[in-house]
Write a structure and sequence with these properties.
CATH class of the largest domain: Alpha Beta
CATH superfamily of the largest domain: Vaccinia Virus protein VP39
Number of domains: 2
CATH topology of the largest domain: Rossmann fold
Helix content: 25-40%
Structural class: alpha/beta
Order of helices and strands: HHEHEHEHEEHEHHEEEHHHH
Distance between the termini: 55 Å
Shape: elongated
């Protein structure tokens, strides 16, 4: 079924292939908008399915472009999709999809970084998106650091450059381990569910891509004040080659004593320290 999914989907919704949509609307991807279009409806359907059961869920999609993933989400049974698209050129193509799925697709033109769309959605809410490369990490950090937890979303299924995806799921001791891993794994279960080569996209980027699925935990994995934890990890990883007693000296003159009290060697470096230990250090300041 996967190999034929693109043709099956086109037959179900009566819409043209994505290649035809690109031609009809002259949608040349713009580098300035971080656009790399995924035109294979088989792949967009796989991403939609990686988000789990969508029936009974509202879905937030950022950067739908010509609407390949949008069509996959709707075909997979999403109760409603809210698509935020900055590029006005894509709106006519998305309007065709809305006509094919009456009452189930709302398209909002604007910059997702400047919008609060949670109020437009009804729980349970899933976020599924082939994020523009130039805003993907910033959006993820915002979704992981709301003022109140649990967040508005139940899960995030997001495509990034593969290096970013590896940073999200990294464990201590690896080159990819850093603040992004700690922020993600403190409040969510994160795993890579799919990788895609450059040639899957138009235009082909210079790097591989990967889809990460994050499921929100009901509460953080270990107790800690979020602001303090972010400050500590920012200091620690901004100077990751330094010993922690030096990298964290901005946390106060007693940092070496605090490190020892929480079981962290003052001579250790940030990439050696796990999430639980960083949370314990954060708690020592509250």
């Amino acid at each position: 079924m996967d190999q034929k999914w693109g043709l099956v989907l086109a037959a179900i919704d009566g819409l043209p292939t994505l290649a035809q949509v690109i031609r009809d609307h002259d949608l040349v991807a713009k580098k300035a908008l971080g656009q790399n279009f995924l035109l294979d409806l088989n792949l967009t359907a796989k991403i939609a399915r990686a988000a789990g059961d969508l029936t009974g869920c509202d879905v937030l999609e950022v950067g739908p472009g010509p609407g390949g993933l949008t069509r996959g989400l709707l075909a997979e049974g999403a109760r409603r999709v809210l698509a935020v698209e900055k590029d006005a050129r894509c709106l006519p193509a998305l309007a065709q999809i809305a006509d094919a799925y009456p009452g189930r697709l709302e398209v909002v033109q604007g910059d997702a970084l400047a919008m609060d769309v949670a109020g437009r959605l009804t729980a349970p809410i899933k976020v599924v998106a082939n994020l523009p490369y130039n805003v993907g990490t910033e959006l993820l950090i915002r979704w992981l650091t709301p003022a109140v937890w649990p967040p508005f979303w139940a899960s995030l299924t997001l495509m990034f450059q593969r290096e970013v995806a590896e940073r999200i799921v990294a464990k201590p001791g690896g080159d990819h381990y850093g603040r992004l891993a700690l922020l993600a794994q403190w409040r969510a279960d994160a795993r890579i569910v799919m990788t895609l080569p450059p040639e899957a996209f138009t235009p082909a980027p210079k790097v591989h891509s990967a889809v990460v699925h994050l499921t929100a935990l009901p509460q953080p994995r270990y107790p800690a004040d979020g602001a303090v934890l972010q400050r500590i990890t920012a200091m620690a990883f901004n100077q990751r080659r330094k010993m922690l007693r030096s990298a964290l000296k901005g946390m106060g003159p007693d940092i070496e004593d605090r490190l020892q009290a929480t079981g962290i060697a003052p001579t250790a470096r940030a990439e050696e320290i796990g999430l639980e230990a960083f949370c314990a250090l954060a708690r020592s300041y509250t």
